[in-house]
Amino acid sequence: MNPIWQQKKLIEFCKDKGIHVSAYSPLGGQSMSNAVLHSDVLEEISKARGKSVAQVSLRWIYEQDASMVVKSLKRERLKENMEIFDWELSDEDRFKINQISQHKRNRWGSRLQRGPCRD
Ligand SMILES: NC(=O)c1ccc[n+]([C@@H]2O[C@H](COP(=O)([O-])OP(=O)(O)OC[C@H]3O[C@@H](n4cnc5c(N)ncnc54)[C@H](OP(=O)(O)O)[C@@H]3O)[C@@H](O)[C@H]2O)c1
């Protein structure tokens, strides 16, 4: 789960059933063609907020009441990725993220053909 693969129906289903959601690949995974970290919409929001694209993505996930499993081998990024709790996205930011066209990719960047939930 991330802003490029929001899985709205699944999130709604889980909320309805009281199931906690945890997002893996919250930054889009480790692919070179990472659609999250290269998103124009997230880039625009990140500039307006003075935050990184990664922080915008993680903050959006946090605001969905989900937890996340984010990975970095870099100390400064580990710190950056934790600095998402003392600010919030605006309604306009949320609206823009909501409009992002959705792409389902696995952690290596390949398109997945099958899955438990299609959107
Ligand atoms: N159980 C499962 O089925 C499953 C499936 C997928 C993933 N996972 C687990 O979930 C965790 C996260 O998944 P993931 O590694 O695929 O995806 P991810 O956390 O979305 O993305 C990791 C990638 O983002 C980079 N990154 C991290 N912080 C960044 C930042 N602030 N700015 C720019 N780039 C940043 C990392 O590079 P650097 O390391 O160079 O910073 C790495 O290339 C992993 O521990 C993985 O094993 C489990």
Keywords:
oxidoreductase activity, acting on the CH-OH group of donors, NAD or NADP as acceptor; binds NADP nicotinamide-adenine-dinucleotide phosphate; oxidoreductase; mainly alpha; 5% strand; 119 residues; 5 helices; NADP; Aldo/ket_reductase_CS; NADP-dependent oxidoreductase domain-containing protein
Description:
The protein is mainly alpha-helical and 119 residues long. The chain has one domain (8-95). It contains five helices and two strands. The protein has a two-stranded parallel sheet. Bound molecules: NADP nicotinamide-adenine-dinucleotide phosphate.
Give a summary of the structure in a few sentences:
This protein has 119 residues and is mainly alpha-helical. The chain has helices spanning 8-17, 40-49, 53-63, 75-82, 91-98; strands at residues 22-24, 67-69.
Could you give the topology of this structure?
Blueprint: H1 8-17, E1 22-24, H2 40-49, H3 53-63, E2 67-69, H4 75-82, H5 91-98
Parallel strand pairs: 1-2
Helix pairs in contact: 2-3
The number of domains is 1
Q: Which quaternary structure do these chains form?
A: single chain
Question: What ligands does this structure carry?
Answer: NADP nicotinamide-adenine-dinucleotide phosphate
Helix content: 25-40%
First CA to last CA: what distance?
Answer: 10 Å
Number of helices: 5
Backbone shape: globular
- The ordered H/E elements are HEHHEHH
Strand order, largest beta sheet: 1-2
What amount of the residues lies in strands? 5-15%
